[in-house]
Design brief:
- By secondary structure, the chain is an all-alpha fold.
- Helices cover about 25% and strands about 0% of the residues.
- The protein starts with a helix and ends in a 38-residue tail after the last helix.
Amino acid sequence: MKAALALTLAMLLAACGSSEDAADEAKPVALVALAPAQQGAVDETLTVYGAV
């Protein structure tokens, strides 16, 4: 009985997903350039706060 209830609730929650509309997609907020890692002295330290 509990398994059937859990399965029913899971199916209902799965139906509440987001739309497939392309307009709802998140827009990029930063341009990032990557470079190969190199060994050397540290010239500058930057502390950044935020969420990923």
